[in-house]
Protein 1
Amino acid sequence: MSTYAQKKGFGAVLWDYLTTVDHKKIAILYLIAGGFFFILGGLEALFIRIQLAVPNNDFVSAGFYNEILTMHGTTMIFLAAMPLVFAFMNAVMPLQIGARDVAFPFLNSLGFWLFFFGGVFLNLSWFLGGAPDAGWTSYASLAMASETHGIDFYALGLQISGAGTLIGGINFLVTIVNMRAPGMTYMRMPMFTWATFVTSALILFAFPPLTVGLFLLIFDRMFGSNFFDVANGGNTIIWEHLFWIFGHPEVYILILPAFGIFSEIFAIFSRKRLFGYSSMVFATVLIGFLGFMVWAHHMFTTGLGPIANAIFAVATMAIAVPTGIKIFNWMFTMWGGSIKFTTPMLWAVAFIPSFVAGGVTGVMLASAAADYQYHDSYFVVAHFHYVIVGGVVFALFAGAHLYWPKMFGTMLNETLGKVTFWLFLIGFHLTFFIQHFLGLMGMPRRIFTFLPGQGLETGNLISSIGAIFMAIATIVLLINVIMTQVKNEKVGNDPWGDGRTLEWAIASPPPFYNFKQLPLVRGLDAYWLEKMEGKNGMTPAEPLGDIHMPNNSFIPFVISLGLFIAAFGAMYRAETSWGLLVLILGMAVTLGAMFVRSIKDDHGFHIHKEDLMDDDNDKGVKA
Amino acid sequence: MANQQPSSGNPRVDVAYRRKKSAEEMRYQIVSFTLMIFLTIVAFVAVGYEGFSGWFTVPFILLLAVVQVIFQLYYFMHMSHKGHEAPALFLYSGVVVGAVTILAFTTIIWW
């Protein structure tokens, strides 16, 4: 393989992406797949709001509404937000710590393809007899009673994509522990890398409970066990606990990377060092730790008893403390800074009040006694959309604008970016602010329609109008993306002009080996330090030498495809004659591919020093 | 880092020093191995002896099991060496999460 870019046909590009183990290309795959599922989940949200725009609406039937609602939640959390977060982690984190790739490039690719096939499997339920309809939490009492194959699609699909996420998380952990550039101590790591680290640890500990819960569900529904069957001595509450032991850390898995992205943005566009860096690190770790102690606040009305409720209420309120530390640090970062209101910065500034509003309702919901009133009402819906949209989705939009040049080498149009921002911000508050009051007026969540004359008409109509604004904002972003990529005006290392961390020290997009020579890190905001001393690049930490690179591999795709096939077999095993055969065939494909991987030595290849010296002008670290 | 050996693997490092380190390491291994065998025998005896009730035997052999796990991790899997701080951190975090889960299941679900 040569280091020179060659013009390739469509087939070659496709094959390149199917087999790639390069973290930057996997990031793009995550971005495309996550973006696709985000639009799918957004369409489902629109259908929900159309149905609820007027009383007694019959746009969709009650049963179909349950499917749309379930798939909206499941898609947005597992197939849109998580992969989009993974896209930025993959694209940026290895660059921020000065690594040439993640620790296990092969596993990185496997993680993506498992997620992708799991997501596709889940969404095929629309065409194969009906989607899951027990809510994204899929409480066992509902899930066991569901008659279609929807819940089977849910359990098997999430099992496959969850394995991919777990693999990805472990990979990031190992990368950050072992592959930091010389001088990059833990307390010099950029905030986004810290967020990635803590998030990956949360994934490591939170996904196994989900895996266990999903296996119990799979066994109960497909293989005749009785874990959740009350008539046979089972207990449906076990599912609720297992789900939320996973589910609460899950929301921190989503929000911590969002915090990381915003920390970068505030520092870059205030042109100041992040205020209180060490307290930010401490707060991130503390949020991660406390995240495991609070899951039962989702179950206050299950009848845990006053002692358990009180413990979990207090633990939940405690999380407001580290979160508050972070909010104040961001404001002090802006304080006295020379602020540039670029598109990412607008998102970041708007994030603070939006997220705080969601946090405040969170503390309200954490009061167990009051929660009996709010429980299962639109107040809860308003709360979690304020934190997840106002926190995570804002961060994903901001991150897309901020890191677009690093991922694709082009700048998204700033004017269109600001149009997207304002439309989305207005639409977001229009949709969800009024839902607090709908909830307090007594509108239950997850209902498919409501009656006229109960004071719910205006609020619901306003909410639906807001959703249209958000849809238009997303379309503007898509137009922006297409325009930018068609124009294809390439930008340099540091297109925002104020990059602080290592990723801005190398070309956009970086060469496939990232750093020609590993950079020497002399402090926090390594690139900024060098710039302030009048240098135009990082000081290399090693002489120019051969770079060892991994070979591309098609095996991750095959392993994931095998599980995808096996999942169909598991689902249809009980009612068809071919089910068991397909199950065995699928597992054979997967295990065969793993066997090939195990016995075939793949030592990768070297980029030779001579090739690296040729293109000294525009790639790698400048010495 | 993860597989740090008592010797550096560098031929220039004093051979005598490496031999001494290895001998020390070997002694620890043998001592802990003997102890583990002993604890296993104690566990079998505790179960076999009819004078103890189940209320004594079960917690007792669980305690012995925990001690054995610690020996296993620290002496045979080299967690006592330097450079194992990160694995230790994650191991103990996992233990905490697992313990909280078991505590919750035993207190608010089942009993």
Protein 2
Amino acid sequence: MEILLFGITRDIAGKPRITVPADTPLATVGDLKTWLGDQYPAIKALSSVAIAVDSEYAEDSQTISSHSEIALIPPVSGG
Amino acid sequence: MLIRIVEHIDLNEAPAYLVSEETGAINLFVGTVRNHSKGKTVLHLDFEAYEPMAVKEMEKLGLQAKVKWPLYEVAIIHAVGHKLPGEPVVVIGVSSAHREASFEACRWLIDELKKTVPIWKKEFYEDNSVWVNAHP
């Protein structure tokens, strides 16, 4: 599973996407957030972190599949 | 609706899209780059977007605004890339029969865009750079 990165999270990881190893037990968006925070503790220091599944904001309880496009959404600052 | 993410904003595009014979009011908000922020000189801003999602979120806001107010049309244009002080980075435009709805909807749209649309800006100062809003 690949996670698209933007803004500060791309700087934190030092790359435009994170590959989640196939044997990582991630069932939900909440599991993914926890895993990302463990891998990159700097993500936990952000004001907020959201996950988008197929370019829609997703709740922590939503299940994820490797067939979806998944993106990490740090605090937005458009406008 | 006119919903776009562009490299360079043409300030004539939204008004040209919104103007019509039945419209009594067109309200336009233009956000531009400031040359200072929190007491520091800003050299430039870099904007990036998760484009497919940003367009989807801007479309949702436009549709919600059209439910909340009696609008004819909505235009939301946001720039990405390297922007210098004075350059426009976002345009919100709405058209309605009367001015109240156009003022209120325009204000609501820019406020909501800043909360939900996945676009990020990095401010570059003389001595460092920072992703805006990233940290508490």
Protein 3
Amino acid sequence: MATLGLCFAVLTSILATALCQSARAQERKAPAVGGFESKLEYCKTCHGLSGQGYLGYFPMPRLAGQQPEYIEAQLRAFIERRRSNPVMFNVAHVLSPSMISALANHFYHLNPPPSDGAPRRAVALGKQIFEEGLPESNVPACSACHGEDGHGQHEIPRLAGQLYPYMVGQLTGWSKERGQGTAVDTSAIMAPTAHNLTRSQVEAVAAYVSNLR
Amino acid sequence: MKRIGLKLAIAATIATLVSAVPAGAGDSPAVRNCTWCHGANAQGYTVAPRLAGQRPQYTLNQIRSFHDHTRDNPFSRQYMWNAVAALNPDTARDLANYFASIAPKPANDGDSALAAKGKRIFMEGVPEANIVSCYACHGPNGEGIRDIPRLGGLAYFYVKARLEQWNKGYHSTAGSPMPLVASHLGPDEIEALASYLSFVN
């Protein structure tokens, strides 16, 4: 009991000192809510300050260099619940079309280097699958649609530099997240391909594209 | 002021004396030196947060940031900077692993009337106000992962103080998104979040 009392006395004294000191720190001024800068900062809180992606409890994908049409299509898919993601539903449903295109355009022009973190051992196999596909498993070459450099085009996403855990998560859980409901959307194109890749082939492709610039 | 100085000197001396002893057992002097303030079984006590069940990489990063003086809020300066000054890296790692292995108990000390509001902010954020979802990084039950801390069950006072401190410009681990996250939280949101989290098991 004496111990607790002493401890409490110490902590109380510290609290008093702390209150005196709190005025010393500088308050940070956030940009006005509702404007482009504030919303951009909001996106970057999770997707990284350079849009390079971020590993939280869930991997938050790289948006830097992403095709604006893909970003717009995915935000619509979140809103219409074709792509199920409760966090992104909430994020997307308050964005106006003009805000979406401004944000997508901003991220398209960012170009941070890929974040390292993918296993190296399967990169060669990944490159082979990316460039040639797996004819025996009905897997077309990724590069046929996503481009030799993996930069994508229009609604076809950039894969270059995408986070490894995000790539693995998407390709292994494709039909659990995308193409929900009755409406058919472009995600259906990838469904058989994702399904035909084994786990280790997915990891190989993910490792390869995550290092592309 | 003198009394605080004396007690800190005592605490620092104790830290120096025990840091040579390997941690890893619940009754080791190194562990007792922490639980003196962090409470029995490291479940937290008044302003000292619960360490039980905390992600070891997070605890280790915090010890490092106290050591490097990058975590610079008043309690850190006044207490933790000295407490870790003589802690060697091996002991720090052992302590972080040991505390992670203790089952955490929720503090249950928030305002239960605010818990539902806090849960909504935690899970969904407030997109209109640019408040991000906590869940995306800290997990569905605030369990944390890797170096992202467990928040579920932490004491109301501690969570509230931490969220307020980021807004006041105090630093923590370099590269943390938390200053940005907290800049959009007002007093009502902070109270609701701190209340909700105190009840999460």
Protein 4
Amino acid sequence: MDFLIDFFNLNDVQWVPQIVNIIWNGSLYSLFALGYALIFSVLGVLNLAHSAIFMWGAYVGLWAVCGNTVFDGQCPAVDVPVWWAIPAAMIGGGIIAILVDRIAFYPLRQRNAPRLSQLISSIGIAIMMVAIAELVFGKERLSMPLDAIPRRNFDIPDGLSIENPLDIGRIGLGMYVAEFNILLTPVRLQIIVVSLILMIFLGFIVTQTRLGQGMRTVAFSERVSSLLGVHVDNIYMIAFFISGALAGAAGMLYTLNSNVFLPSTGSELTLKGLTVIVLGGLGSIRGAVLGGYLVAAIEVYMVAATDYGGLADAVVFFLFFLVLMFRPQGILGQPLPDRA
Amino acid sequence: MALLSVTDLEVRYGMILALRGISFKVENGQVVCLIGANGAGKSTTLNTISGLLKPYAGKIEFDGRDITKWRPDRICKAGLVQVPEGRQVIATMSVQENLEMGAYARSGGWLGPYLHPQKARKLSEEQRYDIEMVFKRFPRLQERRYQKAGSLSGGEQQMLAVGRALLARPKLMMLDEPSMGLAPVLVNEVFSIIKDLKAEGKTILLVEQNARKALEVADYAYVLERGQIIKSGPAETLRNDEQVIAAYLG
Amino acid sequence: MKQRFKIVVCLLLIATLVLPLSAMAQDGGDEEETPRMGFWEECADPANLSGEIPIGVVFGLTGSIAQYGEPQANGVRLAEQEINESGYLGEEATVTFVYEDGGSDRETSIAAFEKLINEGVVAIIGPTLSSQAFGADPLAADAGIPVMGVSNTAAGITTMTGDPELDQFIFRDSLPESGVIPGTVATAVEILGIEDVAILYGNDDDFTASGYEVFVDALEEAGVEILLEETFSRGDVDFSVQLTKIIEQDPDALVVSALIAEAVQIVTQARQAGYDGPIIGGNGFNSPALFTDAGEDANGVIVGAAWNVGNPNELSEAFVEKYTEAYGNPPDQFATQSYVGAWLMATAVRCADSADPADIRDALASIQDFPSPLGLFSFDEDRNPVHDPVVQIVDDGAFAVFDESYANYFD
């Protein structure tokens, strides 16, 4: 045991704050990857425009709380609670995802085009969406006003009393955060909570409802599904909506944390998200969640415990490569034929 | 009024004429079979009726309604259910889940079919009863209730495919090559299933290459050759037709 | 070469003898009211100059680069006016700056240089970007025309051709990062009594990585212990893992080498995490985005710069006043460096007492301790600028000059 601790250089690591870092980073990765995995499991095709939907979702959320000034590349004031941006981003992301399906996938599906063409088509629309975002919102970074987002580390707020039951939670959290030197802002807590809710919700839909069964049937065969009375186009539409809503939520939470809105936001997540779902198991919902936390754990570990933080991506992609070599179906995945 | 009537149905694959204007009828309570060689257009006929293929010309009427341009899922919901060629059970789902999928078509409402929880314990009384009936009919499926459908043998998969179709409570079942790829023992088993269904008064449109077996169970038959119906009549008549004997039963 | 050097030395000697007289004669009363540029004491009044002496100016005047190019051109215009009004080049001669748009890409700058060289300018100021300089400066060097960058801070600008015969024509007056950081670190250590620091830097970008190396050397020089070094990649938006480690170590100061996008995130996240000590930044922090995007979180950021609008230097104060009067807004660092660049060129023409590019080059190279808004300005042997940087601290949402009055700012 001591040997392992020495080998992995874990002595100097501050466990609690870094695990918190893993949790909120991992939640974000998982949330992003879930939508990716959902489309892959239903369509058998990677939707490489997922990160563009992520970015658009963030802009839609920004527009919802900031108003039309975002089209001039500004966000001078946020008059409504900033959290409204999250449902707005989800609805926006969902609708945009349906449009992506209609433009990039549907025509090809109708013609029974090979999956590779659909993959390439999704790359094309991703590039288009980034270009359109640059036109609409400008290439420069957009930010919300600094005071719009509660960004301070949790603390024991003034004026709270241990006698007020509503305050006990906040006091407890503040004490815990201070005691363990945790960096936990309200936005990050929001990331964790919203991600967990959405993950559980998606899990419920896929395993417990007719819709989920319909999706799994469509994933197996479009033809068989329609013979069983499944309205395949509706399933695709709903799947894209849910996937886009997850991407929108992830995009909004991601940008709320950084307060940087750029058309290029999320491009770095395309590959990372792919790694996440491949590690966990292509098309597996549980796999996407596991993969998200795994990638976050590797990244945090590389920075926290080694002097090679810059190599975190390299290690993640090396693992990606190993999984592809030795367990192509991923850690939790089942072997799948003919996917692209 | 026949339950299903197909009139002058013409189907093209690009420039190739797959069906050259065929017409036939299936009456309520009848077992009708289409026989013919490979590539005669039997499966094309079924897939066109099911809505998977769009006809170039002609008309399909089912239960008094023109379903020529309907989507496949709507046709299924109307009670015209196909058991596809090669069984096509959902390999990644359990036997139970496959049967539940069979009942998918019977859940109504716009949002209803999607967000209604559908696990065994939450199925409607009717659906649970139907599933139990399928297990009674095919006890071997009950034994493998929670196994993945992909792990079943060919015969069991055929049972599952038929059982799944029954869950939709079809008015007309279309079986596409149910005996294909099965060992002779299993072929007999499949046809005894069809006989049982017939005995229960189910209406069946059967497509078979195994013309001898098909004509044994059918009430009426059509012979398909290169996209055209060249002969039709009661199954018994065709069984004794020399031309048919020479071409398909010999 | 040697002979030229002798001539220059002779000229300088003569100049030192004659200049006090001429300066008084030329410019009696004015100087006392507002300090004026020029009238460098080392040079005599020119005797051989006449007519308009053309000097090319290449700045990016169109597109997004115009936010740098416009103030640069304004600085040169102001200098041109002052030079000619004061008769700096003698009774007979004036300097004429010929402006060409250098665009934002290399090719446009190269074309602008070619045009100016064909028109027979005696020297060129510009271009705006270092990358443009690498493309265009060799053209001037080939033609034997001195060229001075007034905003090029990349390493190796003045030795870009690798051939000393050509390189000798390439100058700059814009202080590179290596000229700014050591002074910044020394000042911060001296005033705040910093003993140990943590470093956070981008290791996948030339600019931030070289800034990091300069920081390490400067910290060693100042005897400061480096507790830990953390890295990030360009485009990162979250630094909580690194900051968790850094804050645990409780350093006296956080040293950051980053471009502005990451710099803003690091500053805000460090403050979010409850770190309220000094943050010493590299040149990447010299951007208004620091205030607009980090807001009050930026308070306590210490950054060195070649120049600051609050520079406590008489010439600088006079320049700010005049520039503001002429253009309606205070000058930025780019305007100041181009203004000084124009004056340096004029001074070289004056000291050379010749419109021959080679003579101008020699005179330019020998400028030492030239009083300017940037402070006492010299060229080193590689024709890089030498002058004291200004150490700034962000206080109440703006850069202020960092001096002893901030000794207790972080207490």
